[in-house]
Amino acid sequence: MGMQDKAIALHDVDLSLGRGAARVHILKGISLGVDRGEAVGLIGPSGSGKSTLLMTMAGLERPDSGKVIVDGTDLSGLDEDALARFRGRRIGIVFQSFHLVPTMTALENVALPLELAGEGEAFERAEAELQSVGLGHRLHHYPAQLSGGEQQRVAIARAIVPNPAILVADEPTGNLDETTGQSIVDLLFALKRDRGATLVLVTHDLALARLCDRMVRLRSGQVETGAASAVA
Ligand code: ADP
Ligand code: MG
């Protein structure tokens, strides 16, 4: 398969962030393909560049050099508006700390991406999505009134409500207890199974990484190759 057939293809991506003396060379020559419908666990030590790589795949960071091709589209060819529209339709992003709007209810948070995209029936679809993640009884609660696991479900509902083919999540179980984390894992893999979604999950949780079709291990901004990154 060529790069155009992949859900995500990175070719020799380099990225630095920060200014002046604080500038850090974070991603160093990353090449990586993710097949459609594949689940990839992105692992590696803290500071190795996992979050930055995820944001680059999602088009929230632009590489200094190299190519990022998502769903056959070279992201470098899109201006900021086109990139935002592309992201809104194709890529669901679950941030590490949820990033919910505190002044909006669960329902309003989940409806927001549909409203921003000018899509119809935003509230009906948001309600259905909250029901699908088991939160039909929390529609009118504000984030501060929800547990960590419930906030994570709202964040996932918001990410998947536009029906993106690709879902990326940064340590989706990182802030949750084991039981709550397991229910989030079940939810993510149900998306892969039922909707054929491509998953890229940053995780420290080896059990979660092992559920993925493949692990990719980062070390100091590079993909570690060889037996160490094979799924045991
Ligand atoms: P991980 O998710 O694997 O812990 P990150 O991608 O968050 O790693 O960060 C990789 C490295 O880049 C870290 O050393 C971090 O301090 C640095 N870094 C991240 N964001 C910035 C930024 N905006 N400016 C400067 N350095 C950054
Ligand atoms: Mg991180």
TrEMBL record:
One of its GO terms (molecular function) is transmembrane transporter activity. Keywords: ATP-binding, Cell inner membrane, Cell membrane, Membrane, Nucleotide-binding, Translocase, Transport. Residues 10-231 form the ABC transporter domain. InterPro entries: AAA+_ATPase, ABC_transporter-like_ATP-bd, ABC_transporter-like_CS, ABC_transpr_LolD-like, MacB-like_ATP-bd, P-loop_NTPase. PROSITE patterns: ABC_TRANSPORTER_1, ABC_TRANSPORTER_2. GO terms for cellular component: membrane protein complex; plasma membrane. The keyword Cell membrane applies. Belongs to the ABC transporter superfamily. Macrolide exporter (TC 3.A.1.122) family. This is Putative ABC-type transport system involved in lysophospholipase L1 biosynthesis, ATPase component.
